[in-house]
Amino acid sequence: MSRVAVFGAGSWGTAFSVVLADAGHDVTVWGRREEVCTTIREKHENTEYLPGVRLPDTVTATPDPARALDGAEWMVLAVPSQSLRENLAQWSALVPDDTVLVSLMKGVELGSLKRMSEVIAEVGGVDAERISVVSGPNLAAPIAGREPAASVVACADEEVALRLQDLVHTRAFRPYTSTDVVGCEIGGAYKNVVGLCVGMAVGLGFGDNTTASLITRGLAETARMAMALSADPLTLMGLAGLGDLVATCSSPLSRNRTFGEKLGRGMTTEEVVASTRQVAEGAKSCASIRDLARQIGVDAPVAEAVTEVVQGRMQAQDMVEAFIERATKHERD
User: Fold this and answer.
1) pLDDT tens for residues 129-174?
2) Is 13 flagged in the annotation as binding?
3) Predicted confidence (pLDDT) per residue in 266-321, tens digit
4) Fold of 182-325
5) 254 annotated as a binding-site residue
6) What are the two backbone dihedrals, phi and then psi, of residue 178, each rounded to the nearest 5 degrees?
7) Known binder of ligand: residue 202?
8) Catalytic: 191?
């Protein structure tokens, strides 16, 4: 049994707490709001972000980061990607020296264009061997409902990846190990942008041929960026690439897809944000992914167009037409 601190009381952080508890560990969730933490402690349910799911008795919650980290062997980070730097700066001094940090976040930081593991290393002063990531087709509600699912746990240190694999392996959750942190993170971040794009096509009324085309070309774009950053292209064919992409683009439970659908129906980004309390990471990270593609010289038409729509400079219909009108080329170009 291990002591695990999960920082982030949203739907994914809460669902991952269920996985950890099912694997036999004591879990303390840190949440920003006292009322959410109180409900988790007293009712064993996160009624705001994951209603209807009873949390195991070994899951508790607190708004006190020091208390959450007291004795923790693992620190799981499940906060919005664009707030990681600010939050971690407040917590890093509290993290025990031998604690392994696990990122559940899928994004690229605006401005610095760093992946989440790079932000953790920079702000927390943590070596790469103590930073791991979890990525895959892991929609929160089905995971919390213990539907069978698989994922990838990655760390530069294979031994740490094996330890994390053992930490989260349950009867319903099957983890595979990897040392390709870059590939897993790029796959996880980019699929949010592609999910927005596919959602827009669905919102416009287009069917399976259109969405399958966008998914496939989005995967090719993701792979180009990953390989330019020295990732293993086969990672993008696995759970952290294709698997996560299919789940995000196909499921109505995906916040990025549903956000995109609303844009496709003519809502503005501001209107969509006002209509939901949950964060669609792709809407926040699309600009940073576009900028990273430009910085490393990767052709990224999906990221470019999605950013234009999200920022209100293009309509979804114009985005689809722009894809069709692009110059023809060999499929691998």
Assistant:
1) 999 999 999 999 999 999 999 999 999 999 999 999 999 999 999 9
2) yes
3) 999 999 999 887 778 889 999 999 999 999 999 999 999 999 999 999 999 999 99
4) N-(1-d-carboxylethyl)-l-norvaline Dehydrogenase; domain 2 (1.10.1040)
5) yes
6) -155, 155
7) no
8) yes
260 contacts 195 by C-beta, under 8 angstroms: yes
Per annotation, catalytic residue among 43, 114, 191, 329: 191
Backbone angles phi, psi at 29, to 5 degrees: -95, 130
- Tokens 């259109």 correspond to 210
CA distance 187 to 237: 10
**Tell me, which fold does domain 3-179 have in CATH?**
Rossmann fold (3.40.50)
Q: Is 280 annotated as a binding residue?
A: no
In the sheet that 59-62 helps form, which strands lie side by side, from edge to edge?
Answer: 59-62, 26-30, 3-7, 74-77, 100-103, 131-135, 149-155, 173-178
Cite the residue boundaries of each domain of the chain with CATH code 1.10.1040.10: 182-325
Cα separation, 64 vs 48, whole angstroms: 19
